[in-house]
Amino acid sequence: MDTVVQWNIHGFRSNFEELKLLLNRSQSAIVALQECRLGEGQLPPRGFTLLPWGVSPGAKTALIRNGIHVSEIDLKTGLHAAAATISLEKLTVCSPYLPPNSPVSKLSLAELFEQLPKPFLVLGGGGGGGALPPEWTREDARRVHS
Fold first, then answer.
1. 11-30 confidence digits (pLDDT tens)
2. Cα dihedral sign for 82, 53, 2, 69?
3. Model confidence at 142, in pLDDT bands (50, 70, 90)?
4. Contact 82, 57 (CB under 8 A)
5. How far apart, in whole angstroms, are the C-alpha atoms of residue 74 and residue 81?
6. Strand 60-65, strand 28-34: pairing
7. Residue 93, CA distances (Å) to 27, 46, 60, 115 in order
8. Residue 119's pLDDT band (boundaries 50, 70, 90)?
9. How many CB atoms lie within 10 A of CB 27?
10. Are 32 and 59 in contact (CB under 8 A)?
11. What is the DSSP string of 41-99?
12. Which Gene3D superfamilies match (predicted)?
């Protein structure tokens, strides 16, 4: 089964064995990783391609299972966000970073979402604990829309 996983790994190299275990058990197609602290020349686990994401080198990456076509999307936003369209039923995956204690406006998020081909999946806020608008945290706001 193809799954998409997001994990705040707190160091790619220091948690590499756990990452391999996750990949084997979950049969993940994509794993979005945060706080990777990637070193120069870091190799991905066997069977995956490493896709560095975002403006902070080593902060975010995605592991994409080999054989899955990926097209990165060039976003024009003040938010720290990365997005790519993948060939799993043509799903766009976006992973924004919401800085700690920094409120994010609905307008900024709406502008980001308008740039994403549909259907799309937004993965977390980046572990920073940025504040989403209250109406976006209600249960009915969490449904997938295409």
1. 888 888 998 888 888 778 88
2. positive
3. very low
4. no
5. 10
6. antiparallel
7. 17, 22, 13, 12
8. confident
9. 10
10. no
11. TPPPPTTEEEEEESSSTTTEEEEEETT--EEEE----SSEEEEEEETTTTEEEEEEE--
12. Endonuclease/exonuclease/phosphatase
Judge if the upstream peptide bond of residue 119 is cis by omega within 30 degrees of 0.
yes
Q: Which residue carries 């259907």 as its tokens?
A: 119
Count of structural domains, the chain: 1
Q: CATH number, domain at 9? A: 3.60.10.10
Both structure tokens of 84: 């790519």
- Rounded to whole angstroms, the Cα distance separating 30 from 123 reads 11
pLDDT digits (tens, 9 = 90+) for 71-80: 888 888 887 7
d(CA 68, CA 66): 6
If one counts every other C-beta atom within 10 angstroms of the C-beta of residue 24, the result is 11
Two tokens at 37? 């602290």
Residue 33 lies in domain: 3-142
The residues with which 73 forms a beta bridge, in sequence order, are 83
